[in-house]
Amino acid sequence: MKISVHPYFLEFIHPFALAHGTRKGTQLAFVKIEFEGIVAFGEASPPPYRKETVDSVKKWIETQKEHVFSLLATNNPFKNPENIPFSAEHPAASCALQTAILHWYAIAKGKKLSDFFLPTNSSPALTLTITKNDFDFIEEKLNLATHFTHFKLKLTGSDDDLDFVKAIRNKTDSSFCIDINQGYSNKEKAIKLISALEKWRCILIEQPLKDTDHEGHYWLKQRTALPIIADESICLLDDLIQFHEAYSGVNIKLMKCGGLFQAQQMIDFTPLNNGQKFMKLLGCMSESSLGIATASVLASQCAMADLDAPFLTKNDPFKGFQIVNKSIELDDSIQLKNKMLFLLNTQ
Questions:
Q1: What angle do CA 12, 112, 126 make, to 5 degrees?
Q2: Which among 25, 42, 99, 247 would be 20 to 30 A from 286, CA to CA?
Q3: Separation between Cα atoms, residue 68 and residue 86, nearest integer Å
Q4: Could you report how far apart the first and last alpha carbons of the chain are, in Å?
């Protein structure tokens, strides 16, 4: 068996403007398992505002090789998910390795990954991201938006946030979500913005304050009818158990929680919150179609899925995931577009 880690720089079509700063792309790390003639991949996407790096992913994967060999040689990873290597300190690396293991096993059994997860009959709402840098290309975004149910507007905590929302509203009357990515340090300033947004078909507010400010988010939750959704504030299942009362819901991301099985546990978690509905969203980092397709097998269990990353990048090395007419479509397998080009780009 061979396990290797391949760095890959995923480029955005347009620069991506967040409260964390503006980026032209994201450095990924693909994990490749070669065993018994079967090749399978997993993906780690550690953006610069997270602690993990491509180097840390590679170092952690190196420590797990013998464990993975034993697992694939003797076990069904779907029956004993607790045997799959996991580290709360290395969630993106854990996700990449788990993904490669599960894809390898599915291929070995002649099945699709989705065959091992029970879908529901519901279809999640689907969001398309618009950042402030996208406004010059708004017509392009509006044309693409016909395949999605909502926009997700990325604010930055700056004085022009409301002007940006008004400018988008002048272009479309579609409902939208707001994601602030910890942009506000002042809860009074945040509630002023949120109160204005209540009038404009905004349906939820994601992560307005700093990740550790659970009390501030609870304060906001008590003062608006709009759901206050945790992203950076709740990464792992333990975070969800400890801090869920401060929020109206959570955006679950495989790169934050460690993989599909950890995400499923978060979806299955039912808070005791006096009958109030707690929203489960499925999100993503900047990822290729490999990571997005993997996450999408859980999408039908969530109220909303933010899985638009393949529509925001220009050098996605994988294919097999689409969103068409407000519905997720998966090919039978997720494959490399060009094996030789991928190898050249990941040296």
A1: 45
A2: 247
A3: 11
A4: 20
Q: Which residues contact 157 (CB under 8 A, 6 or more apart)?
A: 19, 180, 182, 183, 184, 185
Closest CA to 177 of 145, 153, 195, 200: 153
Distance CA 299, CA 13 (A): 25
Question: What was the pLDDT predicted at 273?
Answer: 60
At 123, the amino acid letter reads: S
Q: What is the pLDDT of residue 341?
A: 58
DSSP alpha helix (H) spans, 136-271: 138-144, 161-169, 187-197, 214-221, 237-243, 254-257, 260-268
Residue identified by tokens 């779907």 is 78
pTM of the full structure:
0.94
CA–CA gap between residue 190 and residue 209 (Å, rounded): 8
How confident is the model at residue 24, as a pLDDT?
92
Mean pLDDT by 10 residues, the chain (347 residues): 95 83 91 96 90 96 94 89 96 98 96 88 90 91 93 94 94 94 95 94 96 98 97 98 97 98 96 77 97 97 96 95 94 85 60
- Token reading at 272: 């005791």
Backbone angles phi, psi at 39, to 5 degrees: -115, 130
How many CB atoms sit inside 10 A of residue 322's CB?
15
The one-letter code for the residue type at 59 is K
| DSSP per-residue string spanning 73-103 | HH--TTT-GGGS---TT-HHHHHHHHHHHHH
Q: Nearest to residue 263, comparing CAs of 248, 251, 245?
A: 251
Place of tokens 């099985």: 261
Check residue 319 and give its pLDDT: 95
